[in-house]
Amino acid sequence: MDDKFSDEVLGRARVKNNEKLASFYDDLKNYSTGALWEVANDIEPWEPAAPSVPYHWSYEVTRKHVVQSIDLVTPEEAARRVVYFSNPGALDKSACVGWLYSGIQGMKPGERAPAHAHSSSALRFIIEGKGAYTVVDHHKVPLGGNDFVITPNGVWHDHGIAEDGEISIWQDGLDIPLAKAMDASFYSLHPEGYQPIDFPIGDLPTIYGAPGLLPVNHNWDKPYSPMFKYPWDKTYEALKGLEQMTDGCEFDGIIMRYTNPINGGHVMSTMGAHMQLLRGGEHTKAHRHTGSIVYHVAKGQGYSVIGGKKFEWKEHDVFVVPSWVWHEHCNTNSKDDACLFSFNDLPTIEKMNFYREEAYTENGGHQEIVA
Ligand code: GTQ
Could you count the other beta carbons within 10 Å of the beta carbon of residue 51? Predict the structure, then answer.
C-alpha cells in the first residue's frame, strides 16, 4: 500500500487484538455497542473508496433485453418495464453507480404507464422511437431522440406511446438509492390512474426557454427547473457554437451544464446533468472528483479510461465513473465529433460541501492503461 495511506501511524486506529480485547468486543456486542477503533479506519478512509466499480453496458445487449421484456410483462403488471443497470460493486443498492439508479425503459404503441409520484427525482434521456410522451405535473411533453427530460421529486408523472407510434426506448436516471439510504422514500399513485393534461403542449419551454429572456412577473418558485424538456437540436447547436468560441476544458472538451433558467443552478435538487462534445480525435486529460457520474453516448464512438481500465463505447452505450476515480475520454473518430450526455449527484455533493477535484499530473495527464 502507498505509504501515504498507512494506518500504522499515530492518529489512526492500530490496536492489536488479544484475548482480553476479544472478550471485551463480544461483551459490547451484547449491548449493541462496539469499539470505534475496530471500525474507524474503515468508516473513515483516508480518501473516498467507492464500492461501485467503473463499468460499461453495451446498448446492443441491453436493447435486446428491453425488447424481450416487452413480450414478457405489461406496464399494468410491472408498473414500469425497465432493465436496470446493476453495478457489480453495489448489488445491494440496485445502483448503477454510487447512490444513483439507472435503467432502460421500453414501451410499445398504445401503452401507458400509470401516473405516480415519489421522493426520488427522475430524469430521462431519449434513445429511439416515435410517438412517446411523458406527462409531468399535468404538462404533456413529447419525447424525441437525445432529448433530456426531468421529473423532479414529488411531481406526478406518467408515460405513454401514441397508438400510431413505434416501440420507444429511453434511459431513466433516479436518485432512488440515495432517497432510500436517507430513509426518506415515499411513493404515491395518482388517484385518477393517469393525469389530466391541463396545459398546451410545449408551454414551459415557450415561457421559460427563450435565450436570455424571462417573462417579467413570472411566478416560478419551485426548487427545480421549469424547463421539463431540453431538446437535442438546441443542445447540439449550443455546443457547436461554443466549440467555435473556445478550446473547452482540458478534462471534458466542450461541456455545458443543463441549467435552471431562473437562477442558473442545477436542474433539480439532487441530480444534475451535462452534455459534452469531444472534437474529432480529441483525447482529454484525466482528472477525478467526488460525485458519481453516469454517461450515455449521445453521438459517436470512442473510449474512456476509468481507474486505469479502458472502456470502448459507441452510440447509446452507458458507462459509469464512481466517485474519486480518475477518468479521461477519447473520441476515436478524427473526422466527426462525439457527444456524451451525463448525469450526476453533484447538487447533493455540493450542498454537503463534499466537492473536491484533482488533476492527474503524471504521464502528460494520461493514465496508464492496466486492463
Ligand atoms: O419513471 O418514475 O426506471 O419510479 C424506476 C423507478 C423509472 C419512474 C424507473 C421509477 C421510474
Answer: 14
Degrees, nearest 5: CA angle 217-272-307? 165
Beta bridge partners of 306: 309, 327
Classify domain 55-365 at the CATH topology level: Jelly Rolls (2.60.120)
Is the CB of 174 inside a 6 Å radius of any atom of ligand 1?
yes
Instruction: Please tell me the distance between residue 33's alpha carbon and the centre of ligand 1 in angstroms.
Output: 38
Cβ pair 129, 167 in contact under 8 A: yes
Q: Provide the residue type at 369 as one letter.
A: I
User: Following DSSP, what letter does each residue of 111-152 receive, concatenated?
Assistant: -EEEEEEESS-EEEEEEEEEEEEEEETTEEEE--TT-EEEE-
Question: Which residue's CA is the nearest one to ligand 1's atom 9?
Answer: 172
- CB of 109 within 8 A of CB of 162? yes
Domain ranges in the chain are 3-43, 55-365
For residue 172, the CA-to-ligand 1 centroid distance in Å is: 7
CA distance 102 to 190: 23
What letters, b where the CB count within 10 A reaches 16 and e where it falls short, cover 105-132? bbbbbebbbbbebbbbbbbbbbbbbebb
Which residue minimizes the CA distance to atom 2 of ligand 1?
A: 122
- Write the pLDDT tens digit of every residue in 91-109: 999 999 999 999 999 999 9
- Structure confidence at residue 76 (pLDDT): 87
Could you tell me the pTM of the whole model? 0.97
